[in-house]
Amino acid sequence: MGKNTEPERIIKEHRKWTQWIETPRKLRLGNLVVTNRRVIFLNSISSSPEVTQNIRKLADAPTEQVLNYAYTLNRDNFQVPLSSITGLKIGAYNWTPIPHICLTIVFVDKRATTRMAAFQFIRPYRQTLLKPQIMLVIDWIREIKKAINNA
Predict the structure, then answer these.
(1) Residue 41 bridge partners (DSSP)
(2) 128: CB partners within 8 A, 6+ apart
(3) Helix (H, G, I), strand (E, B) or coil at 133
(4) CB count, 10 Å around CB of 37?
(5) Alpha carbon of residue 103 to chain centroid
(6) 22, 40, 56, 84 - which has most CB atoms within 10 Å?
(7) What pLDDT score was predicted for residue 1?
(8) C-alpha span between 44 and 63 (Å, rounded)
(9) CA–CA separation, 138 vs 151, rounded Å?
(10) Structural domain spans, the chain
(11) pTM of the full structure
């Protein structure tokens, strides 16, 4: 299979504890996922019996179908094709007196406007001691760049 016909697959994800920083006071909690085609932020949702049933039906479905379904569960979800990403960098913002490190993605939207999205990865304190936040962001930048080059 060529690169364009390759099925969508997850390259990296940070489940449950990623914050999408829209403003210093407006944070959305969810999952950040990088695939071989796009970067997706899926906001946390309250599960219902219907959602649970649909997820069970998708157990053996292709990754693309599962991600597309998850994307429809919240109108505030975020996705950007890898081809639209123009920059990746380490950002910082001050929500408290201590600056917080975040992943900043610069991309061109459908109206050809340059936009930026920032994501902070939340982890248990012990994991942060073993691998500082900046190293985690560097790993994400490396993986997204690799996915862009392979797309």
Answers:
(1) 32, 78
(2) none
(3) helix
(4) 21
(5) 10
(6) 40
(7) 44
(8) 19
(9) 20
(10) 10-150
(11) 0.82
Q: What is the pLDDT at residue 85?
A: 96
The whole-angstrom separation of Cα 5 and Cα 3 is 6
Measured distance CA(16)–CA(8) in Å, rounded: 21
The alpha carbon dihedral of 106, 31, 151, 58 has a sign of negative
Between the CA of residue 40 and those of 31, 82, 84, 116, 127, what are the distances in Å?
Answer: 8, 10, 13, 14, 24
3 state DSSP class of 140: helix
> In whole numbers, what is the pLDDT of the chain averaged over residues?
84
Q: For residue 11, give every residue at least 6 positions away whose Cβ sits within 8 Å of its Cβ, in sequence order, or none.
A: 34, 35, 36, 143, 146, 147
Q: In sequence order, what are the residues at sequence separation of 6 or more whose Cβ sits closer than 8 angstroms to the Cβ of residue 36?
A: 6, 8, 9, 11, 82, 147, 150, 151
* For residues 104-118, average pLDDT: 92
The tokens describing 81, both together, are 């094709």
* pLDDT for the residue 2: 46
* Chain segment 60-105, per-residue pLDDT in tens: 889 899 899 989 988 888 899 999 999 999 988 765 666 778 899 9
